Amino acid sequence: MNDNGPVRYKVAEAARLAGVSASTLRLWESQGLVVPGRSETGHRQYSADDVARLKRISWYRVERGLNPAAIREALESEEPSTDGAEASQDSGLGRKLRSLRHASGKTLDQVAGDIGVTSSTLSTLERTSQGVSFKTLHDLAEYYGTTVSRLSGEESGEVAALVRAGERRAWPETTPGVTVQLLAEGRRMMDCHRFVLAPGAASEGAYRHEGEEFMHVLSGRLELVLDGDQFFDLGPGDSLYFESRRDHSWRNRHDGETVLLWINTPPTF
After folding, report:
1. What is the pLDDT of residues 127-155, one digit of tens each?
2. By C-alpha distance, which of 78, 120, 127 is closest to 98?
3. Which of 46, 77, 192, 221 has the fewest CB atoms within 10 Å of its CB?
């Protein structure tokens, strides 16, 4: 192991330290109790904090007899306040969602059931800000009475009129293959974004909200579906304007990246 970097344990090593089997670790991962990192080759890697968490999970299961849902809630109650300076920006969206859930008095299982996702998926999102579709992220924002843009940290400060190409901020990469870059900052009447979609990236379902929106394809190819039965195949230079209250879903139909300019008004996404 590299003495200059953080310690990382393989599955067998982490299981031995936690006093459980490797198959148990995989089960706990599927239940959303722990989210290990991955090596460049895709193998699971557990940090020292992960191992400490595994030991707590084992204690709650053996000594307290708690089920996975109860263990998740117990582990959450142990976590420090998210107001500290050491809070990671990468997990900021997940922390905001967890704070909103706590404020509403809901459990993970209740919100997951209301939204139509698994508790493990929601737990992973709250812990890592990753692992959900674009549609699910929108549904959660709507559930809590906010917008994805606000959850992603776009609402603070005055309007910045100039955003240079190399200085664009991006949303947390919640959805695999979807990068959303900010083209305008601060208080404004439009959500102005540059979407970069990897091959096959999609909304994974339809969503809707108030307002109107405009998109312009810069490169690649995008399929957009309105109301489930109107299909638009958009290529470079094509534009589309529609009411946001219409159900809309999309996917990258190109074998490379698709890049588009996407504007919502008012900022309700």
Report:
1. 888 778 888 888 898 898 888 878 876 65
2. 127
3. 77
